[in-house]
Amino acid sequence: MFFTYLRRELAGRRRQTAIIAIGMALAIALVIIVNSVASGVKAAQASVLESVYGVGTDITVAQSPAPPGEGEGGGPRFEFGADAGTTADGTTEISQSRLSAGFGSSTFDESTLDTVLGVENVAAASGTLSLTNTTFNGEMPDFSQMRGDGATAPGTDAGTGTDAQAAPPQGGPDGAGGSAFDVDSFSVLGLDPAADAIGPLSAVSLADGRALDEDDTGRNVAVLDADYATSAELAVGGTLDIGGTVFEIVGTVTSNAADSASAANVYIPLDVAQALSGEEGMLSNVYVQAASSTDIAQIQADLEAALPDATVSTQEDLASSVSGSLATASSLVSNLGLWLSLAVLVAAFLIAILFTISGVTRRTREFGTLKAIGWSNRRVVGQVAGESLVQGLIGGAAGIAIGLIGIFVINLIAPTLSGSASGGGFEMAGGPGGAAGGDASGATGAAAGGRAFGPMGQTAAATTEVALNAPVTVSVIAIAVGIAVLGGLLAGAIGGWRAARLRPAEALRSVG
Predict the structure, then answer these.
(1) In Å, how far are 55, 202, 358, 468 from 255, measured between CA atoms?
(2) Same structural domain, 215 and 332
(3) Which range (158-172, 290-304, 369-383) has the least confidence?
(4) The Cα angle at residue 244 between residues 239 and 250, in degrees rounded to 5
(5) DSSP alpha helices (H): ranges in 249-376?
């Protein structure tokens, strides 16, 4: 009897069934697409984070940047003595290289690494020191000719030792007393050569030469990002000046993520980086790998308790640092997509409920007759709920089909999103290794390329181009089926309750 009435109702009320199914289908399709795109964006964020923090990094430990002290400038200071540089033909050439932590950044004692390793369920951890190497190169006139030391110089009265006529200095890059200089900077990451299973080097592949190994501890050897090496015209077997010390280039690496830079321009042994920068026994970041994903929350809580002055961040926390169109897409999916899905879903449920109640009203005489011949309220509710459930499942099947088609179209188009994640640095225009010189009148040059020093210029920022891929998962399909069942049952329960309230005598007198 149940299936007889079910088949007759669906066949006799095709318009109502179609409207309910279409509304449910659109809502379910939108939910499927939004959930799949959200999963794709999350996977893209993880790819960007891996290029900076390394594969397998679940938690990072860092120190919050300290505010600058009184009298501190906005970058490294270059101080030159009176006899600095070399002078020839009235022009003094000056060059100086500094290796230091970025202005406004903070380092902490490397004993923190031992504390981290002592936390329960920590599988591995490694520490790094993020630095910026800044090189100043300049040409200026020989100002020693203007010293008031009593020596005879052009325009000076030999008898009095005073200037008879002020004469501008000659020389400089243009021969007319002008000055020019450039500032070149690149990021340097000091790390433990033996710890390559976690941290930034776990997210790179060897392009040429060799990687750092345990025997490189204490040695002046460097591995370069392949893109930086190309732009700076450096190669394996060559040398690179870092902090005034010559390093041998032993290898180049590329990021495992397509179209992205690795975490730094240059990688050197941690102990060497600490010594050259004056940061002996200090770290800027600790990368932590949990024994299991279920242990991450516990490890974070224990680290925050053991290191109250440190900033302990999970991958989920770090995802908020991803910028670019990837961040825009994430915000769009999280906000507009979520609320739009909920709005359409509520509308679909309301349509199903209203049409079910309307159908029950039109079947007043039918339900009155059924109750008069002995149908119980429970059986009436079950009949209406069953019919509504089937309508919901029809809409669910159509919604899954539409959703899968939408996901297929998205993956076929594969929109490209750009994202960058930074542990505290920023990029300057121009490309790594470039430099901008001043003009002849002495205008200053700027650091054109590489990672810059500044309020947060400690760590490199890696920019990645990611093709969005919306995955289809069992959980998404399960959510769609659940929504279809819920919508059908909800509409059927309300419609059935309305039918069960009909009194047989009153129903039989009505015209339906």
Answers:
(1) 11, 9, 62, 18
(2) no
(3) 158-172
(4) 25
(5) 270-277, 296-306, 315-318, 325-332, 338-362, 364-372
The upper half-sphere exposure of residue 191, i.e. CA atoms within 13 Å in the direction of its Cβ, equals: 28
265 and 355 belong to one structural domain: no
Which of residues 463 and 248 earns the better pLDDT score?
A: 248
Residues 349, 353, 359, 362, CA torsion sign: negative
3-class DSSP assignment, residue 241: strand
Domain count, the chain: 2
Structure tokens at 126: 């490694």
Same domain, 121 and 81: yes
- 459 Cα distance to chain centroid: 14
Residue range 482-504, pLDDT digits in tens: 888 888 888 888 887 877 776 76
Domain that holds residue 40: 2-44+326-419+468-509
Q: In this structure, are residues 78 and 244 in contact, taking their beta carbons and an 8 Å threshold?
A: no
First vs last Cα of the chain: how many Å apart? 21
| pLDDT of res. 428 | 32
Residue count of the chain:
512
Tell whether 245 and 374 lie within a shared domain. Answer: no
Backbone dihedral angles phi then psi of residue 266, each to the nearest 5 degrees: -135, 140
Q: Rounded to 5 degrees, what are φ and ψ at 490?
A: -65, -50
| Whether residues 494 and 376 fall in one domain | yes
Amino acid occupying residue 356: T
Q: Among 279, 308, 337, which residue terminates a domain? A: 308
Q: Quick check: 188 and 268 in contact, CB under 8 A?
A: yes
Q: What is the pLDDT of residues 281-293, one digit of tens each?
A: 999 889 898 888 8
Would 303 be classed as within a structural domain?
yes
Do 476 and 331 fall within a single domain?
Answer: yes
Q: Could you tell me if 115 and 35 lie in one domain?
A: no
Residue 419, strand partner residues: 464
- pTM of structure: 0.59
> Average pLDDT of 188-199?
83
Specify whether 407 is located in the same domain as 274.
no
